[in-house]
Amino acid sequence: MNSSAASRNNILTRLQQTTEVLQKDSGNFTFHEGSSFDKGKRWSTEEKVVRLKRMMEAVHTEVHLCGENTWIKTLCSVLEQKQIRKILYGAKTGLAQELVNLKQESPEMIPELIDYKDPIEESKDLLFEIDAAITTTRGGIAETGSLILWPTPDEPRLMSLVPPIHIAVLYASDIYSTFREAMISENWSSEMPTNALLISGPSKTADIEQTLVYGIHGCKELVVLVLQ
Amino acid sequence: MLSTEQFKKDTFSALNNPQLRGNFKRAMSGLMQKRLAVFPDDQEFFQLREIGHSARANALHKLPELLQQLESNCSKNGIQVYWAETVDQANQLVLEIAQRHNAKSMVKGKSMVSEEMELNHFLEQHGIEALEADLGEYIIQVDHELPSHIIMPAIHKNKEQIAQMFHQKVEPSVFVESAEEMTAIARKVLRRKFYQADIGVSGVNFAVAETGTLCLVENEGNGRFCTTLPPVHIALMGIEKVVEHLEDVPPLLSLLTRSATGQAITTYFNMITSPRKDGEKDGPKNVYLIMLDNGRTQMHSDQLLRETLLCIRCGACMNHCPVYTRIGGHAYSTTYPGPIGKILTPQMKGLHKAGYLADASSLCGACVEVCPVKIPITEILLRLRHQKEEDKGNFPLTSPKAWKAGASDLVWKGWKTVFSNPEMYRLKSLGIAKLGNFTPRWMPVLRNWTSVRSTPVFAKKNLHQLAREEGLSYE
């Protein structure tokens, strides 16, 4: 690793020399404000929901619009239709309580709930064998049809990647118009998490003769429950 | 191997390979249409690329400060940063990290810098398996080939060829014909590899100086696997990839995915700011960032040439290049093919070695029109050609190269004399109109063209005459 310090020094010295010379030549640099990038792209909640749904469905995502009280019913029918026997969830999240309650009331409605409670070193097999995972989201982006996820210790990063089915719960009120709006309103630059993600559909590839195929490495199916 | 002769030979054989030309033509037309569909409004595109250009130009303007800021923020977040001037040093750094962690196997997300380094080959020599996990990269790695496109590495192969490859070289050997079935096999094989790998390697699309964040753009999820599941993550980036603010990212991301594949956004946009923190259950415990120069500081030292470093590697220039579309990516024998390769490679490898690549362009400018960050590719090509001619004085007089250069000089001098003198120009036009059509088809040089095409017929009157007859007062 000794070479790194010398390389660092050489690279920076060369860059600094040319920067001094060129800055004299070119005078002041004019910068085009990024703010004009998404100017005019601000939509109402209804419009955002419609747009997000359309964009996500175009890339093979199942989007269900539900009421705050009926979402669990929709979830049950999704679970039944996809014959999910075991589902990974974060035991300390807001939606966990509802799942656990329902499981106690009517056990046949909800598959076995499994908590991602141990570090990946001990959970690898569990993760690679499970049918599905359900997670919360931090928000959504209407323009591109994207979910925003900031994985936490309770809902780790691999939940939205390894299981073949990912079910995500999104509050309509958390949908932003654009990516830029989301990062600025929430002041992301002051506190970026370990990992922040935009997810826009199930994993896909077109590497074989440009034929679009869903479900290459990440999840094969993405289901979004939008709570209005 | 890089040489004019080899390039000519490979170009010739590519042009005579109907299968290859069909594969490329189909793929490039598709990509052009997809891009057009997501940029329906020219004005919006022009405005957006102005913003993208200035985010990138600003980063190059402040490059030394931003690299230090990136380094200090990454370090603060727990990412270990290393610098490499050459590809050899970068390879050595990867090896040292691997040895430190007793690693035997690596899985890789797509990274063009790792292609520059020829990292897989290097690691193999040191007994470490480095497996490509992007489906396209995986296909060509198994088939012992190199990428022919920077976004779609296996684009030169059609489905039948890939099906054969899976049948012959992937365990368990089965013959399947559909892209779905082949994808399913690759998913199974590579999941096992992700599960076992000691280290994950990735590239970097944007590195944000203000937050110390590494951004990765992908559709497949292999990039997320490589950067999340193995206990160690090594990110490789060229020093030009830094941007100043997090806010610079949305316009660049939009330009990148729309220009590359016509997508509004890719499936995953992955922003990594630190290794696994206490209490977190997954993610690598060690994250390393290796920043590579490999000729970039040299490019940075020149006002025009530094614009090469604006590039965000979308590949739109090659998708729209009439030369690339006809000869494909392999004929160039370079890591970066197409227009961007023609300006990047001579600067990385030296004009004396790869300068001929700058000649392989008709200067039509299609690449410049679609470039999302406004790289003046044709201007840079001309500059490189010019510089190459200037360097020619260094050939010994007796070498064939000097003779060839002398002959070409003479032709150009003659051309200049005729075209800068109205009388001589008129005489030339008259001569061509009267005698041009008597030129025999078998004439040397000319027959390279006429042997496979009909001979063009010269018009009796030239444009000037026609314009005068029409009564046009200006020409």
Q: How many DSSP helices of chain A? A: 6
The CATH superfamily of the largest domain in chain B bears the name NagB/RpiA/CoA transferase-like
The beta-strand count of chain A equals 12
* Total individual domains of chain A: 1
Please tell me the total number of domains of chain B.
3
Structure class of chain B: alpha/beta
From the N-terminal CA to the C-terminal CA of chain B, the straight-line distance is 48 Å
Number of helices of chain B: 23
* CATH architecture annotation name of chain A: 3-Layer(aba) Sandwich
Question: How big is the Rg of chain A?
Answer: 22 Å
Description of the molecule:
The complex is a heterodimer of chains A (228) and B (475). The model of chain A has no long low-confidence stretch (mean pLDDT 93). The longest helix of chain A is centred in the N-terminal third of the chain and has 25 residues, at 2-26. Chain A has one domain: Rossmann fold, CATH 3.40.50. Chain A has helices at 2-26, 45-58, 71-81, 94-105, 120-129, 179-185, and strands spanning 62-66, 86-89, 112-115, 132-136, 139-141, 146-149, 165-171, 175-176, 195-199, 204-205, 213-214, 221-227. A six-stranded parallel β-sheet of chain A has the order 1-12-7-4-2-3, with helices on both faces. Chain A has a four-stranded mixed β-sheet with strand order 8-5-6-9. Chain A is globular and about 75 Å long. Chain A has 228 residues and is an alpha/beta fold. Chain B has 475 residues and is α/β, with parallel strands linked by helices. Chain B has three domains: 52-294, 3-Layer(aba) Sandwich (Rossmann fold); 303-394, Fumarate Reductase Iron-sulfur Protein, Chain B, domain 2 (Orthogonal Bundle); 402-470, no CATH class. Chain B has helices at 4-15, 18-38, 42-61, 63-77, 87-100, 112-117, 119-125, 135-142, 159-169, 179-196, 222-228, 249-261, 296-300, 316-319, 322-327, 338-349, 351-354, 366-370, 377-391, 400-419, 422-435, 446-450, 463-470, and strands spanning 79-84, 105-108, 129-132, 199-202, 206-208, 213-218, 232-238, 242-243, 268-272, 286-292. In chain B, the strands form two sheets. Chain B has a six-stranded parallel β-sheet with strand order 1-10-7-4-2-3, sandwiched between helices. In chain B, strands 8-5-6-9 form a four-stranded mixed β-sheet, with helices on both faces. In chain B, a hairpin with a 4-residue loop joins strand 5 and strand 6. The two termini of chain B are 48 Å apart. The chains are: A alpha/beta (228), B alpha/beta (475). Chains A and B meet through helix 1, helix 5, helix 6, strand 9 and strand 10 of A and helix 2, helix 3, helix 4, strand 1 and helix 5 of B.
